[in-house]
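quick one before i forget lol
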Amino acid sequence: MSHVQFLQTGACLESLANASRMNVGITRRIVLSCLTNILTYGAEHIEPMPHVARMHDLRRMAERLFRRTIASQHLQSRFVQAVAEFYVALKDSEHCWRVIGDAQVKIRDEVYNAAADTESFMQKRLEQRSLYRRREGMRVTVEKVLHPESLRIGVNPNKTILAWSERSGTSVVADVPLGSGRWYFEVRMMATGDVFIGVLPSKLHDWSDAPTPDTFLTFNGKTGAFHGAKDTSVAPRRIWKAKDYVGVVMDGAKKTCSFFVNGCDTGFFFHFAANEAEAVCAAGANQQDELEMSYYPFFVLEEEEGVTINFGGAHFEFESPRDCFPLDPANLSLGTLIPYNQLRAFHDLATYIVSAGRTTLPTFFHEEANPFDGSTERFGPPHVSLHSSVGVQINLLHVRNAGTRFATVRANCRVSGGKWYYEVTLRSQGLVQIGWASSDDPQTGGVGDTPNSWSIDLFRRLKWHDGKSEPLTASRRWVVGDVIGCALDIVERKMIFLYNGRLLCDSNLNDSTFAGLPTTIAYEPAVSLRAGNEVLFNFGSSSFKYKPEGFCALGVPDSWNERMDAFYSTLRPSTTLLRLRALRDIWLSADEFTIRDKVKPYSMVVEAIQQYCQREGKSFAQITEEVCTEIFRDLPIPAQEAWKTYMLLVAFSRVSQTVIPFLHLDTRHPNISTKLFLACRGLLFASLRNDIIDDILRVTNVRTEHLRLSINRLKARSNKGLWMSTVFGQTFSLLAGQHPRAFRTNKRLWGVVFLGEGSEDVGGPFREHISEMCRELMSTSLPLFVPTANNVHDTGTYRDAFVPAASAVGAAELAAFVFLGQLMGGAMRNNEPLGLFFPPIVWKFLCFYPIEESDIDDVDRICLQCIREFRSLKSRVGSGDMFDDVFDAETFTTRLSDGSIKELIPGGSSTRVTLERCEDYADALSSARLGEYTRQLGKIRDGLLSVIPETVLCLLTPSELEFRICGKPDYSVGELREGALYEGLTSDDRRVQFLWQALEDATPLQRRLFLRFVSGRDRLPVKLRVLPLSTSGDADSALPRAATCFFALELPDYSSVEVLKAKLYYSIENCADIDTDFNPREVDEGEAPQLMVGLEDTRQDEVDPAMLSD
């Protein structure tokens, strides 16, 4: 980029931005890619810096692209990521530039003044609550005023208001007065922009008398004309046109109205209180009346003119001015469309952690007071969360039953008096029971199935209590997106359920769903779900859709975004400059190993919390201060310090969950966000990381072509000296030219036909194919991998592991490593574990963890001992002569894992190691052994990254990456038993009990053979099906049968566990072929493998168990 001068200019950026707006389709995507590369890799070279107005254009392009992307928003495009981070950096810089050159303002040498920032933040929060409290949090709508018959008003799906006029002079007014604050809203000009915007003064919220020009004051930015003003000292200007976004700032205290156009301050404003006396007289009111004058936003539209008004119900198109509040309070919880302040918060929290607390935590980090303190009717934390349940995945308030049985989930809040409300949104259509249960009921009992629980089930249109059901009147079954309101009135002893705002009851005469409730119990929200169903709770953290009048939310509103936005909008330039300096210091000074030492105390807290949650079956977000004290009672970390650290980690996890989709994580060209994320990724709780990873993998799965491979295993066995004839070689030759897209699916990657073998692939042959390739890779059959030196010398750890061969540098070998990486990525997506045995150094490299000298111990313990020995020789050996006597033949060379000799320095084979250079030799030897297969691992990672987003690899630890790709090499019988399904018999059947006993007594090798026998795999996960096998004669003479396609095992009714052991062990050790589906044709060993490509993937996710074959 530095070789082309034009690419270093702002003109290039502007030209590309214009090109992206003028083009569509693939041309536009290419332009956006170029823009992204310039912002990402050439930002430091751009002179002059792009104007903020131009960055507004890029930001709007990014937000439009954001709106069009996948609804789940788990991973954004590179352009959105690059623009988001660049925009934040530029806005922060602009914040400092405004005053940094002013001689009157000294900010460069200021120290952080926490008290000043805290005071500004608290003042804004107090003002915020006070202003909205006066309006009782009212949402903003509009009413027709002049010529209502010629005006059409509608509400768009994004909560903006559309007004269209069919004649000149029609008008609408907002139904909420301005009050004393500074308020902001946006107006999009639709036709020509011939619209007047201003205020309508009134003492009564009554538009029965049509306003006259004497009673209102408006301005038309298209024509530059005022309407309704007799005395206006402001010179008119034309400031907007069609399609512009006009930001309106109305200051209720100063009585001024000013305008921003497309994010830029026009500098134009007018006073709207100058004619107040005339307006009052014209309205027929006495100015000395007791009622105070109020001002309402007012709009006058000309003929065939329209506007879209956003009072704050949707994300604003442009950032609101720093000292303004959105007119609609709903905007406070929305934040900005792209979370710019969350990105700032991520930087600040990560910097605090990485700097070991040398910076100061931002004020918004601290939670506000609990409004329920001292309550005698409600018990529990202010932010309601959910108790964990077996087989249920809980991500904050999103619940999914991932198990195989009906499950119940309860909230950690209970009430014994008052009127309370919560809502549940259905994320799937199925059997779900939603309601309330006594806190004394068993946690696993179905809601509505016990004497003190009540629920509704609109899948079956029933209401439930004490295990008995009654019909409910409902027009249809519930569907995805329906909202169920759950209201509990303990005072009136009744329970009300709402279905998208409509009361559910058994007759029109009733005003409740259940009546006559007991008042002596405490009630908890609860839901019971059939396997596969999912719901989303709202206890008040966000706005309710159908809350009845007089009921209280169970939880407090989530003020996280509000606090964050308030903090960064009040930040002084000097504090912004100090923030940027802290980021610069981290970028320039911190290395990976120094950072690891600084975050170690946080890592200890994360590990202790995760162990407790795993042991107790809880979520990390449910830890209380009392629980934290118990966890750290016997650990070296003081409980109070651990609690503060835990609260910081929860805040960091919460911010990270929001910003990860917007971080441009590029490990080859890292920016400050990448560096901070890689430093702190281990501090994100494992359950949160796994949820994010699963979501990213799910939304990036694609529909692939149906590939069908014909593999000649006879050829592989007859030509053992030719690696391209192996099963792996044949597969590689067929698929090496396929696009990586073929591996980006959660279904089987391909179907397999083993030539000359009678198998029909509905899963089993595919797994056998994968297993055989892995067995070849983890052997000397291929020139790609070699055993570790620990294996050769029979010492140290990981003696069964393999590492890439340093000599495998040919074009075919390197391409094979790329293919292996793609195969590993496909295994991650479709949950088909690979039987690969690599030492930790391989997995650390693949997921961007720093590799250190101690990692050599897992590969070559003798070499590591040699390195350490040579480092200490200078201090232990008295003279060079003594050294020469022992090491006279030692040169600057080493033998790598594949047996090849490598020179450690140029001419190393002829350079002797001397006492003076023994440390140089140790350093060179360490560097050579750590990097001996960097090239091969780089190719594997390239293949992996072509299938898996880089964000996923960055989120995984080395052990987690190994588990996702390879599963568990050994397993406990309990793990296999937990997910087992029984068909035609029960878990208490004696043959089932015999099976578990036989597996308990088996060796690790026999357990792996058992998995291969029933599934074609060598590793978990496996969902085993156990079925009875009918026999015509003596059952003890029959062998068990397996259907690998369906993980099914058919067992005869053996007389004893000893008989079952003998038959089972014989079967798993002697039956490795799958050739009983049909009679195969004869195949010549020279027949070449074949690839057939279908037009679309017609494979089914599941196959009917009735189709089981041997």
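fyi Confidence is low (pLDDT under 50) at residues 277-290, 1097-1110.
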